[in-house]
């Protein structure tokens, strides 16, 4: 039997497995590539409308032919559409603008079928599309708007704006976006001045701005928000607006620094993710800012997850123990003491020794700087603390990841007195953890199953960040009983589990 003899339903399933998450509008990619193999495959591909509902138009690769888009829209029948449109920055001018406008018109004519849309286009094209009075988006649940130009600035009105301002509810937003609950914003978006979006119905808002006041501008109208993510380009920017109202539904918060925290009151907060906590001259200690948020909001019993990436934990050494002592419900803790003069592993060892601290801890991710083999007693003390945790009756601890990080200066060859090859300096992190300590961790991992243990030696790569903005590291895995490499900051709190 040849593949041509298979039933159409089986071929449909096979073709479906060959489709990418979002098909690229191209004759060289599925599903159109499948349609060019044989007349029978063409018939099956063209008659299966679900093959054509998930696509991306990428002008970066020159895929700007309206005929292709019209083919996709026609073959998708009446099914909901999930699509992306990516136009390079220079697309705001000249011939590219003229080539993209017809694509916008085709998408506009099917607005009633949009379910998930991701638009990276200039304002001159975005505003007429989304703000058009005749466009209705009855199925749209998730919308991403990335506009070319300068970062958003908070100059549109103050918190508590009077009636008639841009953030008031409008009949247009209620009618045009009845199901919109998830919004991602980035860039200069003039449409925000028109009050066309149903801010008060949003459950998830992710945005990028220039300063912390931008966050307040967005948040003031989002009374039903459950998740808020905000990255701004100037972490040191200060709040100039009044404190925000109470957010009773906000459970997940992911922001660039702690600057926004004094304006918030979040009694249901479950997941707090800070990408960095930078101390400010004359300001409170970063960890004290978190403690104040917890005390003010009364979320001690709801906060299950605390993640601090690239954190500089400075100030009094008892700040971290006092914070963790106030969080009895904490189940996931991820602390990365990057570039911190206070070694994080040394701080965490005595905290873990006392099982009264964070008694419900299920998942621990810890990264701290390590000087040399003289620090090995600190690692041994940390291991002893973990042993005490798992020896408790019905221990909740299920996974541990410890990353021993080298200082940048220890893995860079000095400018003078170069007596060793450069590679030898780069690889010094592999020998920071003594063999005896590695063996002790291996025995602990073997005897503590089903607890998952991962011990890593790492060196930073100076001057380079990944796509999420975090620093890159070269990792040498020393001990690993995880089935596979863990996802970054994979969290088991009830909020994150409910979203996955």
TrEMBL record:
Source taxon at top rank: Eukaryota
Gene3D superfamilies linked: 1.20.1280.50, Ribonuclease Inhibitor
InterPro entries recorded: LRR_dom_sf (IPR032675)
Residues in the signal sequence: none
Listed name of the protein: F-box domain-containing protein
């Amino acid at each position: 039997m040849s593949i041509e003899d298979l039933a159409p339903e089986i071929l449909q399933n096979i073709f479906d497995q060959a489709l990418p998450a979002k098909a690229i509008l191209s004759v060289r990619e599925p599903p159109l590539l499948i349609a060019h193999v044989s007349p029978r495959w063409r018939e099956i591909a063209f008659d299966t409308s679900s093959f054509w509902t998930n696509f991306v138009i990428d002008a970066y690769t020159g895929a700007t032919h309206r005929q292709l888009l019209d083919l996709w829209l026609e073959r998708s029948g009446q099914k909901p559409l999930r699509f992306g449109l990516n136009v390079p920055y220079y697309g705001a001018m000249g011939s590219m603008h003229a080539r993209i406008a017809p694509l916008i018109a085709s998408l506009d004519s099917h607005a009633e079928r949009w379910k998930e849309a991701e638009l990276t286009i200039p304002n001159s094209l975005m505003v007429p599309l989304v703000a058009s009075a005749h466009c209705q988006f009855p199925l749209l649940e998730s919308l991403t708007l990335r506009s070319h130009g300068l970062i958003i600035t908070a100059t549109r009105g103050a918190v508590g704006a009077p009636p008639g301002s841009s953030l008031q509810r409008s009949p247009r937003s209620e009618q045009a976006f009845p199901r919109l609950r998830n919004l991602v914003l980035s860039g200069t978006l003039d449409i925000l001045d028109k009050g066309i979006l149903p801010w008060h119905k949003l459950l998830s808002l992710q945005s990028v701005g220039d300063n912390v006041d931008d966050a307040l501008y967005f948040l003031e109208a989002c009374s039903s928000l459950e998740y808020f993510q905000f990255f701004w380009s100037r972490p040191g920017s200060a709040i100039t607006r009044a404190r925000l109202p109470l957010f009773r539904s906000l459970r997940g918060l992911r922001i660039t620094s702690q600057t926004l925290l004094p304006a918030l009151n979040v009694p249901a907060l479950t997941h707090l993710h800070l990408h960095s906590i930078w101390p400010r001259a004359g300001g409170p200690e970063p960890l004290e800012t978190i403690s104040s948020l917890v005390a003010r909001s009364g979320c001690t019993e709801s906060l299950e997850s605390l993640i601090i990436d690239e954190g500089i934990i400075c100030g009094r050494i008892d700040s971290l123990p006092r914070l963790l002592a106030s969080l009895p419900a904490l189940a996931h803790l991820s602390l990365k003491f990057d570039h911190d003069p206070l070694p994080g592993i040394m701080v965490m060892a005595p905290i873990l020794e006392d099982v009264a601290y964070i008694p419900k801890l299920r998942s621990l991710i810890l990264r701290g700087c390590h000087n040399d083999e003289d620090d090995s007693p600190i690692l041994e003390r940390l291991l002893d603390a973990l042993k005490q945790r798992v020896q408790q009756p019905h221990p909740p601890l299920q996974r541990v990841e410890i990353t021993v990080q080298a200082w940048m200066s220890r893995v860079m060859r000095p400018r003078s007195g170069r007596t060793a090859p450069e590679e030898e300096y780069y690889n010094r992190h592999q020998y920071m953890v003594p063999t005896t300590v590695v063996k002790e961790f291996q025995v602990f991992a073997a005897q503590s199953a089903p607890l998952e243990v991962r011990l890593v030696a790492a060196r930073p790569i100076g001057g380079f960040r990944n796509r999420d903005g975090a620093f890159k590291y070269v990792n040498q895995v020393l001990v690993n009983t995880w089935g596979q490499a863990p996802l970054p900051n994979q969290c088991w709190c009830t909020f994150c589990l409910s979203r996955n």
